[in-house]
Amino acid sequence: MQRGIKRVKSSFEYLRKLFIMPDSPDKFIEFGRELLEMIHDFFQEKTGIHSSITLPELSNIFNQTSLPDSPQLIKDVLSEIKTKIIDHSVKVGSPYYIGHMTSAIPYFMILLEMIIAALNQNQVKIETAKASSFVERELLAWMHRLVFNRRDAFYERHIQNPRIALGNITSDGSVGNLTALFVAREKAFPPDEGFMGVRASGMHEALRHHGYTRGVVLVSTRGHYSIRKAANILGIGEENVVTIAVDSGNRMDTKKLKKKIKTLDPRLGGENAKIIAIVGIAGTTETGNIDRLDVLEEIAHEAGIHFHVDACWGGPALLVDEYRGFFKGIEKADSVTIDAHKLFYCPMSMGMVLFRSEKDLNTIRHSSQYIIRRNSVDTGRFTLEGSRPFACLKPWASLKIIGREGYGLLFKQARRNTDLLKKVLEGFGNFECLNNPELFILTYRFIPEDVKERLYGWKREPAGSGDKKRRKAVEKTIVKVNRLINAFTVKLHKALRRDDSTFVSRTTLESTRYRPQQIVVLRAVLINPLTTKKFLEQIVATQNRIALQLWQDFRPAYERMVEEVGGVIPSTRELPGAKAAHLL
Amino acid sequence: MQRGIKRVKSSFEYLRKLFIMPDSPDKFIEFGRELLEMIHDFFQEKTGIHSSITLPELSNIFNQTSLPDSPQLIKDVLSEIKTKIIDHSVKVGSPYYIGHMTSAIPYFMILLEMIIAALNQNQVKIETAKASSFVERELLAWMHRLVFNRRDAFYERHIQNPRIALGNITSDGSVGNLTALFVAREKAFPPDEGFMGVRASGMHEALRHHGYTRGVVLVSTRGHYSIRKAANILGIGEENVVTIAVDSGNRMDTKKLKKKIKTLDPRLGGENAKIIAIVGIAGTTETGNIDRLDVLEEIAHEAGIHFHVDACWGGPALLVDEYRGFFKGIEKADSVTIDAHKLFYCPMSMGMVLFRSEKDLNTIRHSSQYIIRRNSVDTGRFTLEGSRPFACLKPWASLKIIGREGYGLLFKQARRNTDLLKKVLEGFGNFECLNNPELFILTYRFIPEDVKERLYGWKREPAGSGDKKRRKAVEKTIVKVNRLINAFTVKLHKALRRDDSTFVSRTTLESTRYRPQQIVVLRAVLINPLTTKKFLEQIVATQNRIALQLWQDFRPAYERMVEEVGGVIPSTRELPGAKAAHLL
């Protein structure tokens, strides 16, 4: 039990008044005002991004192992929330926070959440969600048209057709991807004579009946981890997610995909595997790149395979004409997932999964007696989740308030910031950019300019000339130096977390210019409209300052490596008039 | 394009201002105030529960097949939301709305949603959710103790131990049940020599390796539809959810369960099925009854089977000592699901799944490079979902504000209302109650008193005496009359929906006093603390009035049935001094 907390004497009358009552709005308004100001203050504070409190300290704050017995005053709990939680939350909306896909949100989103909570509609069923069921279908039709752009008549017929679903609102993108692969699995093993379908009989019977040894899902090595997780959940097995290597642009190598299909598909002389789905990505979580969807689509449909596109990140960019070109082929996909809490700037969390064919979601339709009856109009007949909030109000209203034009401007700014960050990094000289994103994600790392020049010099040494031994020694050294910088980057990222005035994330990629070596990189996501040039310059300056200091610990090891292959290394400094970064 | 809507000229500066800005809180406060008043007005309005608008009319409102191009003013969109959505929403918080588990919520929940949205933490990862990750673990420890009540040392060690998870916060109960069965499936087919586990290799290889023909899940016929759905998703197959009949108290028949296990388990001479889980229910969605969890637990663990309890509905009743007895055995279950948006009175939607063993969730742990790294402290390593909102703040704060005591008072009132409704129904004479709930759900139907008496008279006719032919004719007539009343009840429910001043739901059950016949029933869920005696009386009076009128259309058919077995029927009116309802 915590001390110093005022207990309230419980009575049913007191409790009843806590519930929304027509005759007691005053308290509500009063608290609402206070809260709005409290939230305002939080965003105004100039503290660090993650608050300086340590994880062990937080462990000591949240260590009550028994739940509270006596009621406490709302104002006491709100003030506890302020000091214990709000003050130690991550300022994901800070212009200095450019590390994850969580960003600032428009303030009207908070108003929408108030409406959603107050109405408390449960989307599972028309009896608990009247107008909101129609809003959901309207939004899904908008998104369906945005992606698949079918004919007017299609949307006029289906926008409010309760017998089908053009897609589902899901709790997030992972559940969206799961739903897409779930449908793909049902379609891969439909009922026929002597087999009731995978839905009724399970994966074992499905494969046994059809004489397959396994079902597989194909995705590039850049695929989101939710694909592997979905394969696990669906009883397909994680090992049966076969990953295809990417090119240097982080896009699936389509030649390798074709080869792989040949080794799997029994009709092409491969093993007895059933390919359940090919998954394209638009864009990748780590690098913001987009697969060549048109090529993937052709390959998938030629082989009769469900083609799913994970556009959880990039999907909203379809709103803007200048980006549509990158997505060519998406309009022929079988299913597409898009998150609302990423580029639609909605608060956590909401995903969408859309199916080109209005019939697809009927493969997983279910019903029960007391709810979502067979002939009902309930949206819950098609979803993995049961109870669902009226979350779709957020993108629905946001598309009205911001509009296609507004999102266009936001993405233009995100593009500008991506280019700007690249320029700022190059200006400092001590950084190396490692991807070329279509969609607002930059990966890079710190390398002191002289080290970078030496590395590039080594790389430029012609492979054919000179003795092979020398070449091997140089290549080995490049790997060793990269390994050292990898360790350095991990330390740097930790030091930046400790500094806490700025934030980027970190990941490890094999598709940089050093492939097949895995390279640890810093990762910036540039979608916060509050992040301007000034902030980007400060972020990079901070990284440069902390990195230069930290590099002192790593320099000796680096110099030993240089000495080993030393004397004959041509320094790029000696090359006339150029910085290494501009040569490559 | 809609006419009459004011377009806003887009500019990046205009958009930037929509995002939460330290220097522009005025608009936010202003809209917040207006919204609070708008919400207040909605609850004050005396309109029908579902609004009188028809579904085709709603289809005509939400029929824009293209998404909006130009931005609109926030105030215009808010006013559109008011007239198009709020006015046509379901008043789930109305004291006359006693049909589903969605009820009124305390007003502070709206304040909590504002905090959740404003902070916009993503629970998947500590880098996007700092204090909130600790809040989540603290809440899970509270709930774990409430259910499993392990020793103090267990909670002190694990409450903030990031290497394990005592449970997950899920988007709802269906995902909670899915997670529990997912873990059960992993435990049923662990890796061994020559087999990498179901996780890696899928269901086919799991069954093949172990020589099973199928995996099954056992649950009573009262099981929630999410169990069947989960079996489908998990590749187990819906047909492999084997349902066990219930007794007249809607509880799984444990003798039949034992028998069924014998026919399945190869060690007991059954077919080659692997029993993945036995699912107990506390309480059932349709009738609020609780399985004999202690007996189920013994049976499950004797056979080495994962025992899951679906306590999505009833779980919070564990807070109150007088209810704990009903749940005996739950403390030994392997996993338990509990919804926050039902008896914790939180807005839509949040579920929890808890595992007795702190090791269980590690069977589904996953990781990736850029997020939820293997050695991280990220809660996202254990969840089916990826991005998740800070939803746990709601029950966490609510347990402080309402407290164990407060919830006790709310449930006492729910119990009182359940008994009260029963009494009111009996007082009217024309109703028949069909279950005896532990937890606040009453099923009943309208039967005019004289019809009920005749029905009961027929039922009382001794089976042994008289000729067999006569008995058969009577039994057949009971079935026919019930069938007639079933059709009547469906019509009545539709008429009540049209009247729209009150709301109960409807379902079909085989476990009433007429089993094995399926009986259509009205279903009341009595958890709204705003529903007092006065409201219950009005609800029943409305039902009685509309039903009596509607019965005129059904009476002739009924009378024909009576005539067929007519003359010799002893009327219960002739029995001295008793109403049929009190005799049975």
Give a quick set of tags describing it:
homodimer; 584 residues; alpha/beta; Aspartate Aminotransferase, domain 2; Aspartate Aminotransferase, domain 1; seven-stranded mixed β-sheet; 19 helices; 10% strand; disordered C terminus
List the helices and strands and how they pair.
2 copies of one chain form a homodimer.
Chain A: H1 12-18, H2 25-44, H3 55-61, H4 74-85, H5 108-119, H6 131-148, H7 152-158, E1 167-170, H8 173-188, H9 198-210, E2 214-220, H10 225-233, E3 241-244, H11 254-264, E4 273-281, H12 293-302, E5 306-310, H13 321-324, E6 335-339, E7 351-355, H14 393-401, H15 403-428, E8 431-433, E9 441-446, H16 449-460, H17 468-499, E10 505-509, E11 519-525, H18 533-564, H19 580-583
Parallel strand pairs in A: 2-3, 2-4, 4-5, 5-6
Antiparallel strand pairs in A: 1-7, 6-7, 8-9, 9-11, 10-11
Helix pairs in contact in A: 5-14, 8-10, 14-15, 15-18, 17-18
CATH architecture of the largest domain in chain A: 3-Layer(aba) Sandwich
Which pair of chains forms the biggest interface, and how many residues does each contribute? A-B, 191 and 191 residues
CATH superfamily of the largest domain in chain A: Type I PLP-dependent aspartate aminotransferase-like (Major domain)
Count of strand segments of chain A = 11
Largest sheet of chain A: 7 strands, mixed
Structural class designation of chain A = alpha/beta
CATH topology of the largest domain in chain A: Aspartate Aminotransferase, domain 2
Q: Give the C-alpha Rg of chain A.
A: 27 Å
Which stretches of chain A of 5+ consecutive residues score pLDDT under 50?
567-584
Into which percent range does the helicity of residues of chain A fall?
40-55%
What fraction strand of chain A?
5-15%
Oligomer: homodimer
Q: How many helices of chain A does DSSP assign?
A: 19
Characterize the overall form of chain A: globular
- Reading off the top of the CATH hierarchy, the class of the largest domain in chain A is best stated as Alpha Beta
Span of the ends, CA to CA of chain A = 63 Å
What's the SSE pattern of chain A?
HHHHHHHEHHEHEHEHEHEEHHEEHHEEHH
Widest β-sheet, arrangement of strands of chain A: 1-7-6-5-4-2-3
Mean pLDDT of chain A: 92
Tally of separate domains of chain A: 3
